[in-house]
UniProtKB/TrEMBL annotation:
Superkingdom of source: Eukaryota
Pfam family, one: Y_phosphatase3
Domain Tyrosine specific protein phosphatases: 183-254
Alphabetized GO MF terms: phosphoprotein phosphatase activity
Name listed for the protein in its UniProt record: Tyrosine specific protein phosphatases domain-containing protein
Protein backbone atom coordinates (compact mmCIF):
# COMPACT_ATOMS: atom_id res chain seq x y z
CA UNK A 1 0.00 0.00 0.00
CA UNK A 2 1.29 3.46 -0.83
CA UNK A 3 1.74 5.56 2.29
CA UNK A 4 0.90 9.24 2.22
CA UNK A 5 2.35 12.08 4.19
CA UNK A 6 -0.74 14.21 4.68
CA UNK A 7 -0.08 17.78 5.79
CA UNK A 8 -2.64 20.16 7.29
CA UNK A 9 -3.84 21.45 3.92
CA UNK A 10 -4.22 17.92 2.58
CA UNK A 11 -6.15 16.86 5.65
CA UNK A 12 -8.40 19.89 5.31
CA UNK A 13 -9.18 18.99 1.71
CA UNK A 14 -9.95 15.39 2.54
CA UNK A 15 -11.97 16.37 5.58
CA UNK A 16 -14.14 18.57 3.39
CA UNK A 17 -15.47 15.40 1.80
CA UNK A 18 -16.47 13.80 5.08
CA UNK A 19 -18.95 14.85 7.74
CA UNK A 20 -18.05 17.24 10.55
CA UNK A 21 -17.39 14.49 13.10
CA UNK A 22 -14.94 12.67 10.86
CA UNK A 23 -13.39 15.99 9.86
CA UNK A 24 -12.57 16.88 13.45
CA UNK A 25 -10.88 13.53 13.94
CA UNK A 26 -8.89 13.84 10.73
CA UNK A 27 -7.78 17.40 11.39
CA UNK A 28 -6.62 16.38 14.84
CA UNK A 29 -4.10 14.13 13.09
CA UNK A 30 -5.43 10.97 14.70
CA UNK A 31 -3.26 8.06 13.57
CA UNK A 32 -6.20 5.78 12.94
CA UNK A 33 -7.90 8.41 10.78
CA UNK A 34 -4.77 8.87 8.67
CA UNK A 35 -4.53 5.10 8.31
CA UNK A 36 -8.15 5.03 7.18
CA UNK A 37 -7.47 7.71 4.59
CA UNK A 38 -4.42 5.85 3.35
CA UNK A 39 -6.58 2.79 2.87
CA UNK A 40 -9.37 4.68 1.09
CA UNK A 41 -6.95 6.46 -1.24
CA UNK A 42 -5.27 3.15 -2.09
CA UNK A 43 -8.62 1.50 -2.80
CA UNK A 44 -9.63 4.51 -4.90
CA UNK A 45 -7.24 3.37 -7.62
CA UNK A 46 -7.86 -0.37 -7.62
CA UNK A 47 -10.47 -0.22 -10.39
CA UNK A 48 -8.42 2.05 -12.65
CA UNK A 49 -7.69 0.35 -15.97
CA UNK A 50 -4.51 1.00 -17.88
CA UNK A 51 -4.93 3.08 -21.02
CA UNK A 52 -2.96 2.83 -24.26
CA UNK A 53 -3.26 6.29 -25.87
CA UNK A 54 -1.93 5.14 -29.24
CA UNK A 55 -4.68 2.51 -29.45
CA UNK A 56 -7.27 5.30 -29.22
CA UNK A 57 -6.12 6.96 -32.45
CA UNK A 58 -8.72 6.57 -35.21
CA UNK A 59 -6.73 6.40 -38.45
CA UNK A 60 -8.44 7.58 -41.64
CA UNK A 61 -6.85 8.34 -45.03
CA UNK A 62 -8.59 11.72 -45.10
CA UNK A 63 -6.99 12.85 -41.83
CA UNK A 64 -3.30 13.26 -42.47
CA UNK A 65 -0.69 13.14 -39.75
CA UNK A 66 1.29 15.47 -42.03
CA UNK A 67 -0.69 18.27 -40.36
CA UNK A 68 1.17 17.60 -37.11
CA UNK A 69 3.87 20.22 -36.62
CA UNK A 70 6.67 19.12 -34.31
CA UNK A 71 7.78 21.95 -32.06
CA UNK A 72 10.35 21.79 -29.29
CA UNK A 73 8.49 23.94 -26.77
CA UNK A 74 4.85 23.43 -27.76
CA UNK A 75 2.91 20.18 -27.63
CA UNK A 76 -0.06 19.00 -29.65
CA UNK A 77 0.32 21.59 -32.41
CA UNK A 78 -1.27 20.75 -35.74
CA UNK A 79 -3.10 22.25 -38.68
CA UNK A 80 -6.42 21.28 -40.23
CA UNK A 81 -5.49 21.73 -43.88
CA UNK A 82 -6.95 19.33 -46.41
CA UNK A 83 -9.72 17.88 -44.23
CA UNK A 84 -12.56 17.10 -46.68
CA UNK A 85 -16.22 18.05 -46.39
CA UNK A 86 -19.27 16.09 -47.48
CA UNK A 87 -19.87 18.48 -50.36
CA UNK A 88 -16.46 18.05 -51.97
CA UNK A 89 -14.61 21.00 -50.46
CA UNK A 90 -11.60 20.95 -48.14
CA UNK A 91 -10.05 23.17 -45.50
CA UNK A 92 -7.51 25.62 -46.90
CA UNK A 93 -3.85 25.61 -45.98
CA UNK A 94 -2.59 28.04 -43.35
CA UNK A 95 -5.95 29.23 -42.06
CA UNK A 96 -6.50 27.24 -38.86
CA UNK A 97 -4.33 25.51 -36.27
CA UNK A 98 -4.90 23.96 -32.86
CA UNK A 99 -2.47 23.60 -30.01
CA UNK A 100 -1.64 23.37 -26.34
CA UNK A 101 -0.44 26.55 -24.61
CA UNK A 102 2.27 28.68 -26.23
CA UNK A 103 4.10 29.73 -23.07
CA UNK A 104 7.31 27.81 -23.73
CA UNK A 105 8.10 28.55 -27.37
CA UNK A 106 11.77 27.76 -27.98
CA UNK A 107 14.13 29.70 -30.22
CA UNK A 108 14.22 26.79 -32.67
CA UNK A 109 10.40 26.96 -32.97
CA UNK A 110 10.17 30.62 -33.96
CA UNK A 111 10.97 30.32 -37.67
CA UNK A 112 8.50 27.45 -38.05
CA UNK A 113 5.71 29.41 -36.38
CA UNK A 114 6.43 32.62 -38.28
CA UNK A 115 6.21 30.69 -41.55
CA UNK A 116 2.62 29.71 -40.67
CA UNK A 117 1.53 33.36 -40.99
CA UNK A 118 -0.40 33.30 -37.72
CA UNK A 119 -2.57 36.37 -37.38
CA UNK A 120 -4.58 35.63 -34.24
CA UNK A 121 -4.29 33.36 -31.23
CA UNK A 122 -7.51 32.42 -29.42
CA UNK A 123 -6.65 31.39 -25.86
CA UNK A 124 -9.39 29.35 -24.15
CA UNK A 125 -7.64 29.16 -20.80
CA UNK A 126 -8.84 30.71 -17.57
CA UNK A 127 -7.28 33.85 -16.14
CA UNK A 128 -5.47 31.76 -13.54
CA UNK A 129 -4.00 29.46 -16.20
CA UNK A 130 -2.84 32.42 -18.29
CA UNK A 131 -1.20 34.07 -15.30
CA UNK A 132 0.67 30.88 -14.47
CA UNK A 133 1.79 30.25 -18.07
CA UNK A 134 1.42 33.41 -20.18
CA UNK A 135 1.73 33.05 -23.94
CA UNK A 136 4.66 34.91 -25.49
CA UNK A 137 3.29 35.96 -28.86
CA UNK A 138 5.80 38.74 -29.54
CA UNK A 139 8.18 36.11 -30.86
CA UNK A 140 5.78 35.12 -33.64
CA UNK A 141 4.13 38.51 -34.32
CA UNK A 142 0.61 37.23 -33.56
CA UNK A 143 -2.32 39.00 -31.90
CA UNK A 144 -3.92 37.66 -28.74
CA UNK A 145 -7.70 37.49 -28.98
CA UNK A 146 -9.29 36.77 -25.61
CA UNK A 147 -12.95 35.83 -25.90
CA UNK A 148 -15.10 37.81 -23.48
CA UNK A 149 -15.95 35.77 -20.40
CA UNK A 150 -13.50 32.94 -21.00
CA UNK A 151 -11.79 33.58 -17.65
CA UNK A 152 -14.90 32.64 -15.72
CA UNK A 153 -16.39 29.84 -17.78
CA UNK A 154 -13.73 27.40 -18.84
CA UNK A 155 -11.65 26.32 -15.87
CA UNK A 156 -11.63 22.54 -16.13
CA UNK A 157 -12.12 21.23 -12.61
CA UNK A 158 -13.68 24.35 -11.09
CA UNK A 159 -16.41 24.46 -13.71
CA UNK A 160 -16.77 20.73 -14.05
CA UNK A 161 -17.93 19.79 -10.59
CA UNK A 162 -17.95 21.05 -7.02
CA UNK A 163 -14.85 20.64 -4.86
CA UNK A 164 -16.49 17.85 -2.86
CA UNK A 165 -16.91 15.86 -6.08
CA UNK A 166 -13.33 16.56 -7.16
CA UNK A 167 -12.05 15.10 -3.90
CA UNK A 168 -14.33 12.12 -4.36
CA UNK A 169 -13.04 11.46 -7.88
CA UNK A 170 -9.34 12.12 -7.43
CA UNK A 171 -8.88 10.42 -4.10
CA UNK A 172 -11.51 7.73 -3.86
CA UNK A 173 -12.96 6.93 -7.31
CA UNK A 174 -10.27 7.47 -9.91
CA UNK A 175 -11.88 4.94 -12.24
CA UNK A 176 -14.76 7.44 -12.59
CA UNK A 177 -12.59 10.26 -13.94
CA UNK A 178 -12.91 9.20 -17.59
CA UNK A 179 -16.73 8.98 -17.61
CA UNK A 180 -16.91 12.28 -15.74
CA UNK A 181 -14.80 14.00 -18.38
CA UNK A 182 -17.13 12.73 -21.06
CA UNK A 183 -20.04 14.29 -19.17
CA UNK A 184 -18.02 17.48 -18.84
CA UNK A 185 -17.86 17.84 -22.64
CA UNK A 186 -21.65 18.04 -22.76
CA UNK A 187 -21.72 20.47 -19.85
CA UNK A 188 -19.30 22.73 -21.72
CA UNK A 189 -21.51 23.17 -24.78
CA UNK A 190 -24.73 23.43 -22.78
CA UNK A 191 -23.61 25.82 -20.06
CA UNK A 192 -20.19 27.34 -20.63
CA UNK A 193 -19.38 28.29 -24.22
CA UNK A 194 -22.60 29.43 -25.86
CA UNK A 195 -21.43 33.03 -26.08
CA UNK A 196 -17.76 32.16 -26.44
CA UNK A 197 -18.20 29.90 -29.45
CA UNK A 198 -20.27 32.59 -31.15
CA UNK A 199 -17.42 35.06 -30.64
CA UNK A 200 -14.99 32.53 -32.08
CA UNK A 201 -17.06 32.24 -35.27
CA UNK A 202 -17.31 36.01 -35.64
CA UNK A 203 -13.51 36.18 -35.38
CA UNK A 204 -13.09 33.54 -38.09
CA UNK A 205 -15.49 35.41 -40.36
CA UNK A 206 -12.89 38.18 -40.75
CA UNK A 207 -10.05 37.22 -43.11
CA UNK A 208 -7.71 39.62 -41.34
CA UNK A 209 -7.71 37.32 -38.30
CA UNK A 210 -6.30 34.38 -40.23
CA UNK A 211 -4.37 32.23 -39.82
CA UNK A 212 -5.83 31.48 -36.40
CA UNK A 213 -4.48 29.26 -33.63
CA UNK A 214 -7.00 28.10 -31.03
CA UNK A 215 -5.61 26.55 -27.87
CA UNK A 216 -6.15 25.82 -24.19
CA UNK A 217 -3.64 24.32 -21.75
CA UNK A 218 -3.23 20.80 -23.14
CA UNK A 219 -4.97 21.41 -26.48
CA UNK A 220 -7.29 18.47 -25.84
CA UNK A 221 -10.67 19.10 -24.22
CA UNK A 222 -11.67 22.74 -24.68
CA UNK A 223 -9.77 23.08 -27.94
CA UNK A 224 -11.05 19.72 -29.13
CA UNK A 225 -14.65 20.75 -28.53
CA UNK A 226 -14.28 24.07 -30.36
CA UNK A 227 -12.60 22.40 -33.33
CA UNK A 228 -15.17 19.58 -33.48
CA UNK A 229 -18.10 22.02 -33.47
CA UNK A 230 -16.40 24.10 -36.16
CA UNK A 231 -15.70 21.08 -38.37
CA UNK A 232 -19.32 20.02 -38.03
CA UNK A 233 -20.40 23.47 -39.23
CA UNK A 234 -18.07 23.05 -42.20
CA UNK A 235 -19.94 19.85 -43.12
CA UNK A 236 -17.15 17.42 -42.24
CA UNK A 237 -18.10 13.77 -41.70
CA UNK A 238 -18.47 12.76 -38.05
CA UNK A 239 -15.88 9.97 -38.19
CA UNK A 240 -13.40 12.39 -39.76
CA UNK A 241 -14.00 14.82 -36.88
CA UNK A 242 -13.44 12.05 -34.36
CA UNK A 243 -10.29 10.93 -36.16
CA UNK A 244 -8.88 14.46 -36.11
CA UNK A 245 -9.67 14.78 -32.41
CA UNK A 246 -7.98 11.46 -31.64
CA UNK A 247 -4.65 12.61 -33.12
CA UNK A 248 -4.03 14.33 -29.80
CA UNK A 249 -3.10 10.90 -28.44
CA UNK A 250 -0.01 10.83 -30.66
CA UNK A 251 1.61 13.49 -28.44
CA UNK A 252 0.38 11.91 -25.21
CA UNK A 253 3.81 11.15 -23.77
CA UNK A 254 4.96 14.76 -23.78
CA UNK A 255 1.61 15.98 -22.51
CA UNK A 256 1.54 13.44 -19.68
CA UNK A 257 5.11 14.23 -18.61
CA UNK A 258 4.12 17.86 -18.27
CA UNK A 259 1.06 16.92 -16.24
CA UNK A 260 3.06 14.70 -13.89
CA UNK A 261 5.71 17.37 -13.39
CA UNK A 262 3.15 19.90 -12.22
CA UNK A 263 0.85 17.52 -10.37
CA UNK A 264 0.33 17.75 -6.60
CA UNK A 265 -1.28 14.31 -6.43
CA UNK A 266 1.95 12.60 -5.36
CA UNK A 267 1.37 14.16 -1.95
CA UNK A 268 -1.69 11.95 -1.63
CA UNK A 269 0.17 8.81 -2.65
CA UNK A 270 -1.58 8.63 -6.03
CA UNK A 271 0.59 7.05 -8.76
CA UNK A 272 0.87 9.11 -11.94
CA UNK A 273 -0.21 6.12 -14.03
CA UNK A 274 -3.66 6.18 -12.42
CA UNK A 275 -4.27 9.62 -13.94
CA UNK A 276 -3.53 8.60 -17.54
CA UNK A 277 -7.23 8.25 -18.33
CA UNK A 278 -7.81 11.94 -17.71
CA UNK A 279 -5.15 12.93 -20.24
CA UNK A 280 -6.21 10.89 -23.28
CA UNK A 281 -8.51 12.02 -26.07
CA UNK A 282 -11.19 9.34 -25.85
CA UNK A 283 -13.10 9.07 -29.18
CA UNK A 284 -16.29 8.00 -27.41
CA UNK A 285 -16.43 11.32 -25.56
CA UNK A 286 -16.60 13.12 -28.89
CA UNK A 287 -19.13 10.70 -30.35
CA UNK A 288 -21.36 11.27 -27.35
CA UNK A 289 -21.00 15.03 -27.64
CA UNK A 290 -21.88 15.12 -31.35
CA UNK A 291 -24.89 12.88 -30.72
CA UNK A 292 -25.95 15.19 -27.91
CA UNK A 293 -25.81 18.17 -30.27
CA UNK A 294 -28.23 16.40 -32.62
CA UNK A 295 -30.52 15.22 -29.85
CA UNK A 296 -30.80 18.54 -28.02
CA UNK A 297 -30.30 21.19 -30.72
CA UNK A 298 -31.13 19.37 -33.94
CA UNK A 299 -27.65 20.14 -35.27
CA UNK A 300 -24.57 22.18 -34.44
CA UNK A 301 -25.85 24.82 -36.86
CA UNK A 302 -29.10 24.96 -34.89
CA UNK A 303 -27.05 25.44 -31.71
CA UNK A 304 -25.06 28.25 -33.29
CA UNK A 305 -28.01 30.09 -34.81
CA UNK A 306 -30.49 29.67 -31.97
CA UNK A 307 -28.32 29.49 -28.85
CA UNK A 308 -25.16 31.39 -29.77
CA UNK A 309 -27.08 34.02 -31.72
CA UNK A 310 -24.77 33.95 -34.73
CA UNK A 311 -26.14 35.37 -38.00
CA UNK A 312 -26.28 33.08 -41.06
CA UNK A 313 -24.12 35.64 -42.88
CA UNK A 314 -21.34 35.03 -40.36
CA UNK A 315 -21.46 31.28 -41.00
CA UNK A 316 -21.31 31.90 -44.74
CA UNK A 317 -18.19 34.05 -44.31
CA UNK A 318 -16.54 31.45 -42.06
CA UNK A 319 -17.11 28.77 -44.68
CA UNK A 320 -15.83 31.02 -47.46
CA UNK A 321 -12.71 31.90 -45.47
CA UNK A 322 -11.82 28.36 -44.46
CA UNK A 323 -12.91 26.16 -47.38
CA UNK A 324 -11.82 25.72 -50.98
CA UNK A 325 -12.37 23.42 -53.93
CA UNK A 326 -9.62 20.84 -54.45
CA UNK A 327 -7.38 21.60 -57.39
Amino acid sequence: MVRTSLGASSLSLVAYYFNATTASIVLAGCACAVELLNSLIHKGGLLVKDVDPKALVVHLPSVSTDNIIQLKGVINFRGLAGIPTRDGLRIKKQVLYRSAHLARIKEEDIDTLIALNIGTVVDLRSKREKTKLPDDLTKISARDSTLTGVEDKLTLWASMIQLRDVVNLLLFNRHRIQPSLGEYYIDIVDNMVVELFGQFLVLLSDKDNLACVVHCTAGKDRTGIFVALLLTLLNVEEEVIISEYSLTNLDFDRSFRGFCKGSSLKGYGIPDAQMKGSMVAEPQWMRNLLQHMKDKYGSVEGYVLNECGVDPEVLAKVRANLLEKPE
